[in-house]
Amino acid sequence: MKSKKQVKPNPPSSKIPGQGQAADLAECEAENKNHEAHAATQDARIEKAEARTEQAEMRTKQARVRTEQAEARTEQAKTRTEHAETRSEQAETRVAHEIRASELSYRRLFEAAKDGILILEADTGQISDVNPFLTNMLGFSHDELVDTPIWELGPFKDIVSNKAKFEQLQEEGYVRHENLPLETRDGRKIAVEFVSNVYPAGEHNVIQCNVRDITARKRTEEMQLRLTAIVNSSDDAIIGKTLEGIITSWNPGAEKLFGYSAAEALGQQMLMLFPPERVAEEPEILARIARGESMRHFETVRVGKDGKRIDVSVTLSPIIDSDHKIIGVSTIARDISERKKAEVALRASEERYRTALDNILESCQLIGLDWRYLYLNAAAAIQNRRPNEELLNRKMTESWPGIETSGVFMLLRRCMEERIAVQKETEFSFPDGSKGWFDVRSQPVPEGIFVLSIDITERRQAEEEIKRLNTDLEQRVVMRTAQLEAANKELESFSYSVSHDLRAPLRAIDGFSQAVQEDFGALLPEEGQRYLKTIREGAQRMGALIDDLLTFSRLSRLPLTRSAVNTNELVRALVADMCPPAQCDYVEIKVDDLPPSQADPALLKQVWINLISNALKYTSLRKGARIEIGAEKTNGATTWFVRDNGTGFDMRYADKLFGVFQRLHRAEEYEGTGVGLAIVRRVVQRHGGRAWADAELNRGATFFFTLAGDPEV
Amino acid sequence: MKEAKAVEILLIEDNPQDVELTLRALGKAKVTNSIHVARDGAEALEILFGEGSDARRRISGATKVVLLDLKLPKIDGLEVLKRIKSDPRTKLIPVVVLTSSREQSDIVESYRLGVNSYIVKPVNFERFAEAVQKAGLYWLLLNQPPHVDE
Questions:
Q1: Set of chain B residues whose Cβ sits within 8 Å of the Cβ of A493
Q2: B19 falls within a domain
Q3: What is the pLDDT of residues B45-91, one digit of tens each?
Q4: Fewer CB atoms < 10 Å away: N or C end of chain A?
Q5: Does A690 touch chain B if contact means CB atoms closer than 8 Å?
Q6: Which runs of consecutive H residues, i.e. helices, occur in chain B?
């Protein structure tokens, strides 16, 4: 081991980087070829060629050449001389030369190795040598480490904490730790790969430990794994290709998108994915990438294995090696057929809505958050009474000076600021002074507000007109009522004078005629007396006419007060009163059971009086006279009737029956003024009912009437 | 006695024909009491309450019945009735309304004011005379007025 230490100092070589190292490597390799055995498996395990060579050799215990070599290394020149003696002169010279060269190159390798190397005495555990790389890695100086038992050194305590452990390690001969945490002198944690081999060197064993800092490698590996996972799990097709367009990588996403497996795609021309009309894209892509450009989200069409066209968005970027050289193209392709389809559908939908908006009759306006008109449909132009071009992209407040104080604007501002839907019918004054009514609805949208408005000017005008007409009508009703009241008053005073003033002269005519008769009757011839009698009859008849007319007038004017009337009682009392049995033996009067009625009692009584007296009058000349009084119910309404078998009348004159002063019989046959039935009809009409008659000449007549408001039975 | 004969019947009527017929009817009934005719409401009130001659002052005390038409010039019959029935000196004098009016309002108002009889004058003279005679005789002969201390 001493000899090694002597050889060790070789500062220049230990610091040779790059090419020096490569030269050593070449030299070493050349030498190795001359030796018989190199374990290929050990070569593979260690990446760096120089270390690998040395380690493999040291580990091999069978080859005699190697034994000699090891001896040579430890025994130095003396041993080498012995060798020389055992061989031919020529061979000796050659071997000695080779060993010297080998020794030198191993030392160089040891010094320059990019792995930490530790040589231990197998029996003592003392460090006999350590290379500069390891002292750098751990932060200890060479002298601090050499001649120290390994278990006393902090960094290695985790591996061999005591001598016993160390011996165990020796027995195992070979220990390998893939990923061992070590702490450097300044407390930094590093991950190392730690391999130790025990092998004999001369009469005792040495242990060589190779310590490699794998912190960065581990990080890279993890990164690599992560990236690989990302690439493999991505739905996007991630493809690598050379600058010539040959596919070099193909992820599962690519397989899924294009249908080719990685095995099918690798090595193929990227052009196989291009549809014929887009083949020209490839040279351009390659040229641009070669210039160092990237292409992002380039939308195009590619063809899958099944020939189907696929809409894709492609991002292309150069692959650059560690020398900043562009060595290929990274292609990330995303399937956008669904998006394209959706875009087409969306565009169609938008088109439809826009067309619909453009054409609907309501005015639609989209107003931005800054109050600028963003959209106006055709109806808006009509409602605004100005072309949309005047308003588009202009602010509402600029377009309509003074609009800030209008009801419309206040409504819209509420919508805009409070972000709530609003609706109102409001009047708007246009700049030219004209006005219109609008039903305005506004709701907040991301861009601002959407305003929908309907021109309701005509409707409002119609409503105003109706209101005006109603007011007008009410006024007219008030006026007419007043007129009617005045007319009624007039009629009242008219009746008053009729009853008072017209009867006074009649009384005089009648009174003085009688005075003549009484005082001068004896002086008058018979003819004169008859004339006087006729004068008196005329006067009295006129008195009767006036009385009936006044009754008719009074019944028309009196207020109607309905109440429940016991018709049965009323009619029976009237019959008994008007036709006492003693005077009415000529007529049989049958009164049915009559339902009650809702009517003005006094007026209803007059109706029954008139109808009963009428029946009595026209049966007075008949033998076997019969009068029937009853009620029939049809459709829930009661029809009352008075039927007689008297004179009757010709139905041709039925329409005259209920008129005032209308008579169907001559005065000398039946007396009467012709007002009775007119009163019946008037009273019945005032109750909302009607009166009519059915008759046959000389066979009798039936008079019917109804009273609206009869109670349901 | 003759010059001092008190007015026992006061007829208030503006229509001369009615006045004549009324007087004729009363005459035929042998009513011989002294009758005074007033031709309008104002004159009637003057006779009843006026401050003029002594003779007229005596009327109120002796009047046994007032026959009153409602429709009168100047002051109408209802007003006259109201004055008669609201004055303590005259309120006990029987008043018979003799009128052509059958108006319910007139009848109701008359009774409300305290009329003693309400007679509608018929056109037929016989019935008119009968009514006048009955009313006149009743109040003149049959009715026993209360004694009032003056």
A1: none
A2: yes
A3: 888 887 555 444 445 567 788 999 888 888 889 999 999 999 888 88
A4: C
A5: no
A6: 16-28, 41-49, 54-57, 59-62, 77-86, 104-112, 125-137
